[in-house]
Amino acid sequence: MSIQRWVKELPISVTVCDSRGVILEMNDRAGEVFKKEGGQKLVGSNVLDCHPEPARSRLERLLESGERNVYMILKEGRRKLIYQVPWFEEGSYQGFVELALEMPDEVPTFLRK
After folding, report:
1. CB atoms within 10 A of CB 93
2. Cut 0.85: pTM above it
3. Average pLDDT over the chain, rounded to whole?
4. What is the largest CA-CA distance in the chain?
5. Where are the chain's structural domains?
6. 98 with 81: CB under 8 angstroms?
7. Cα separation of 1 and 43, whole Å?
8. For 36-47, how does the pLDDT look when each residue is reduced to its tens digit (9 = 90+)?
9. How far is residue 1's CA from residue 18's CA, in Å, rounded to a whole number?
10. In the CATH hierarchy, which fold is given to the domain comprising 12-103?
């Protein structure tokens, strides 16, 4: 698998793993975010090995179910939206993509009709 050029320098963290949890791709931002854990050297390792309980069990269920998982975290004073979504190839579940977006303190909400 080869990361698309437009994703490489995207200013959000993008990590792709297969259905067993093996990390296939990380963009530059993900490499920076996980630098202490090995950064880009994490490609080829299992995402489950990077998470203690109870996060590990949640990830195992996510990998098995192929369902979407969305939540917010607060880490080092920064709020982040974590969006984990399954990816497919010709309709067949392949794993999931995790997007991590830093959220400003004030995020406007617009009601659209």
Report:
1. 14
2. yes
3. 92
4. 46
5. 12-103
6. no
7. 11
8. 999 999 999 999
9. 11
10. Beta-Lactamase (3.30.450)
